[in-house]
């Protein structure tokens, strides 16, 4: 049974999320302040985190940052703030998804299931023989989930690695942002394609010598992206 930690200071919202997730077969723990949430996140063995952005004590950004420093566990951030800058910041810190309140509990459950299913498939691949993609100084070990650029290892979040591996595994194919969102996040974009843009930017910062003139991930203006070989 997958175990989920909800960090949410509005108890009515936390209870509603908990009820729906438990009805769907998940084990759920709730923390109602940032300090407690951070402590449980770092010490506990959870399969997914749901973090509210505005929390007393330690906010969701700080919790996300510290989780990502040690774990690749899926993170869904939720907030009543609709500003793109908060979404971009959250995704940039390594969150896998960002939901704006109010949202339906059934949508939350669907996203939780999608992220857990993808993470299970990816971590389960460790039993397979290592498959490595090597292109012009870029080396991707798709089984060990490690990346090197000119011999130097780079650290990637779960979704950054998934997106890079997918594009590198389908070279010269142009994908729209909507197609990439469906492929990597296992759900319809619902107009939220900024997620893809943020992740492409973070990947380029790690693999490109010159982000203004990328040699790997090329922007096809008005269409999307393709991995050049």
From TrEMBL:
* Stored InterPro entries: CheY-like_superfamily, OmpR/PhoB-type_DNA-bd, Sig_transdc_resp-reg_C-effctor, Sig_transdc_resp-reg_receiver, WalR-like, WH-like_DNA-bd_sf
Q: Name one GO molecular function term.
A: transcription cis-regulatory region binding
A biological process (GO) annotation for this entry? Answer: regulation of DNA-templated transcription
List the SMART domains: REC, Trans_reg_C
Q: Which UniProt keywords apply?
A: DNA-binding, Phosphoprotein, Transcription, Transcription regulation, Two-component regulatory system
Q: What domain of life?
A: Bacteria
Q: Which GO terms describe its cellular component?
A: cytosol; protein-DNA complex
Q: What does this protein do?
A: May play the central regulatory role in sporulation. It may be an element of the effector pathway responsible for the activation of sporulation genes in response to nutritional stress. Spo0A may act in concert with spo0H (a sigma factor) to control the expression of some genes that are critical to the sporulation process.
Protein name, per record: Stage 0 sporulation protein A homolog
Q: Which organism is it from?
A: Mordavella massiliensis
